[in-house]
Design a protein that fits this description.
Elements: E1 5-7, H1 12-20, E2 25-27, E3 34-38, H2 42-52, E4 61-63, H3 67-71, E5 74-76, H4 81-88, E6 93-99, H5 106-109, E7 114-118, H6 123-132, E8 136-137, H7 152-159, E9 165-167, E10 179-182, E11 189-192, H8 198-205, E12 210-211, E13 237-241, H9 246-254, E14 260-264, H10 266-270, E15 277-281, H11 286-302, E16 308-312, H12 319-331
Parallel strand pairs: 1-9, 2-9, 4-7, 6-10, 11-12, 13-16, 14-15, 14-16
Antiparallel strand pairs: 2-3, 3-8, 4-8, 5-6, 6-7, 10-11
Helix pairs in contact: 1-6, 11-12
The protein binds threonylcarbamoyladenylate and magnesium ion.
Magnesium ion binds at residues 139-140, 148.
Protein name: Threonylcarbamoyl-AMP synthase
EC number: 2.7.7.87
Function: Required for the formation of a threonylcarbamoyl group on adenosine at position 37 (t(6)A37) in tRNAs that read codons beginning with adenine.
Length: 340
């Protein structure tokens, strides 16, 4: 088995050397940790799919250290591309553009004539990419289907022995993946809600943007191919709890003969809890709940094994759209329904 090294932020050069040799290095971003490999090296990219157990028709994000690096591949910025890059890069916004034919391997693009580009905020990662001198592919560094990693420890849990190293820069800030906007068609569309909210995008381009991520039927091809796969799913069944239903949810939990995990706001955890309830504190607001969501799901997978997790919901607007998108996927959209 390969030894997975941990690199400190001072060791970007060593990590960049590994990338240049075709090895896989996990890297921090402001959203979640990514799994990096030289995007111009087909063999290295193929090993990313293997390490994740990811279906090969699900294309990868091309992660760059500067807009100039992305420009090598982009054929057409459309009407809004330059504006959005100027406003939000570096940052949690991934943009899908038409690419110059043949400029990226079909292993990266899944054979599409477009590719998704992202310039992350994390300076350590941008330094590593610049030192490698090539863009790196950057899917989330989890095993396919599991919650995305928000710490180097999460990555280590999923990838130990499968990758050469992890560039560890502490926990990520946002906690859910970047917003994906498709600029390859006539109308820009949000393919995945994330750290940059739709209102920010609309304000920048002066146009209301379609969020069509919910409209994909079972037999259609979703615009972001990854959206069709099972995602973020812990071993336990997650039940979403509406803010007013916690009293009944806790009573239900208390009546069970097994331990029940709860991912609840600090406020709820201050009250008295049934003895078989295992708490995970989601903090006091939406931003902290978003930051902690994947860590909480992993906690109940790996440290406190339970069959049921009750998790708090938020209104689906702004960052709440990104939070609820991930929570619904991890639960299959199942809510705790109080019986009265
Ligand atoms: O925040 C993030 O975006 C993280 C960090 C590590 O940068 N990365 C990430 O990558 O979430 P991944 O591979 O887990 O999700 C990328 C999504 C997938 O759903 C994929 O199908 C979609 O982007 N995608 C990639 N290329 C695309 C394209 N050309 N057109 C539409 N969707 C695309
Ligand atoms: Mg992912």
């Amino acid at each position: 088995m390969m030894i997975t090294k941990i690199y400190s932020p001072a060791e970007t050069k060593k990590a960049a050397e590994e990338i240049k040799l075709g090895e896989l290095i996990a890297f921090p971003t402001e959203t979640v940790y990514g799994l990096g490999a030289d995007a111009t090296n087909e063999q290295a990219v193929k090993r990313v799919y293997l390490a994740k157990g990811r279906p090969s028709d699900n294309p990868l994000i091309v992660t760059v250290s500067s807009p100039e690096m992305a420009a090598e591949y982009i054929a057409d910025y459309g009407q809004y591309g330059e504006k959005l890059i100027k406003a939000f890069w570096p940052g949690p916004l991934t943009l899908v553009f038409k690419i110059k034919p043949g400029s990226l391997s079909p292993v990266v693009t899944g054979g599409l004539s477009t590719a998704a580009f992202r310039m992350p905020e994390n300076e350590t990662t941008r330094k590593m990419i610049a030192q490698a001198g090539v863009p790196i592919v950057g899917p989330s560094a989890n095993s396919s289907g599991k919650p995305s990693p928000t710490t180097a420890q999460h990555v280590f849990h999923d990838m130990e022995g499968k990758i050469a190293g992890i560039l560890d820069d502490g926990p990520t800030a946002v906690g859910v993946e970047s917003t994906i906007v498709d600029l390859s068609t006539s109308e820009p569309a949000i393919l995945r809600p994330g750290g940059i909210i739709s209102e920010q995008i609309e304000k920048t381009i002066g146009l209301s943007v379609d969020s069509d991520q919910h409209k994909v039927g079972a037999n259609e091809t979703p615009k972001a191919p990854g959206m069709k796969y099972k995602h973020y799913a812990p071993a336990a069944q997650v039940l979403i709890v509406r803010p007013n239903d916690w009293k009944q949810a806790l009573a239900w939990a208390g009546s069970q003969s097994e331990n029940i995990g709860i991912m609840a706001p600090s406020q709820i955890l201050k009250g008295s809890l049934p003895a078989n309830v295992l708490p995970y504190d989601m903090g006091n607001d939406l931003a902290s709940a978003t930051h902690r969501l994947f860590d909480g799901l992993r906690y109940f997978d790996n440290e406190q094994k339970v069959n049921w997790i009750l998790a708090c919901s938020f209104e689906e607007k702004g960052l709440g759209a990104a939070y609820m998108n991930r929570l619904k996927k991890s639960s299959g959209g199942t809510y705790f329904e109080p019986q009265d």
